[in-house]
Amino acid sequence: MKNFPFTNAVFSCRMGGNDKKRQKREGEAISDYILHLPEDEGVLLSGPAAQRLIQCGDGDAALLYIAVLKNRGSGDDEKIRAQLGWDQTRFRRALDVLARQGLVSLPGQSGRSAVPPAPPTPKAEDRRPEYTRADMARALEGQEFAGLTGAVEEKLGKKLTTPDLAILLGLYDQLGLPADVVFLLVGFCAERTVERYGQGRKPTMRQIEKEGYTWARLGLMTQESAAAYIKKYQRSREALPRMMRLLRLGDRAPAPSEEKYLMAWSGMGFTDEAIELAYDKTVVKCKELKWPYMDRILKSWHEKGLHTLAQVQTGDRPARRQGGPAGERQETGEAAREDMARMEKYLRQLRREKEAE
User: Fold this and answer.
1) pTM for the model
2) CA-based, 20 to 30 A from 157: which of 28, 128, 306, 353?
């Protein structure tokens, strides 16, 4: 993000009306004042949140919510109380009001309890508030959002349209993603689009918005957490060509639906040998690669904590029936031994093919 100098917007206001002569005749007091609004960092209040604060009619709750927004959800109770100059009783009472209104969550009733909850993935019709042009104009008066808008336009190589700007404001305002995290989000989506479709292609703001809701659901609210997520994604992407070869699919790029499966399996932490075993079980059962069937196998192993060939071999054998006939137990054991012998033969063949390459 670019650094922007601190500026103050100055608004001249008059209390009591504009007609000085009429007010003097009627003996009314005239009060002029200058309102200074620091704009080094914008604090935006969404329409739904404002409506809830108005409905609760509690000034302390509204002030606390503004303090939480100002801290971007990163301030703990003690820090926010110090900023407000409140004692514990007053703070807890206002916090309880916000919790009842659904404006903050109280995980464990301790630690960073004033952090607003991460919004769930909304329905298509509920994705964002209906921002008016006036809403967006007010948002652009803040240095942070104005700077973010310029940086995003530069990254995407285009001027944001009014609908684009509404999406960007929704990520920043409604979801509460910090400006630096939004910029990382845009860069991530831009690089992913180039990887999939080639140079010169850019993501749409709709695509960025969809990924933004995923980030919010995962709690990626800091540069550190977002960077860790991007790093993990890149490692999974790097594993795709190798995994395609393991599944006998050659050197072609995976189709989008195939990539979805491969990315999930890579993120689960399976070794190549475990992937090969799941592939073999799938082909033996289905006579060909059936992605959903193989996915069920790997998800089952993942839930059991089995991610290597050795773990699967010792932890995924058929359970013997307690008290069953001896012949039945012997049949089960023979089937398991035959299965393992077949897999060992398959893996030896696979190693020979790799050495031949």
Assistant:
1) 0.52
2) 128
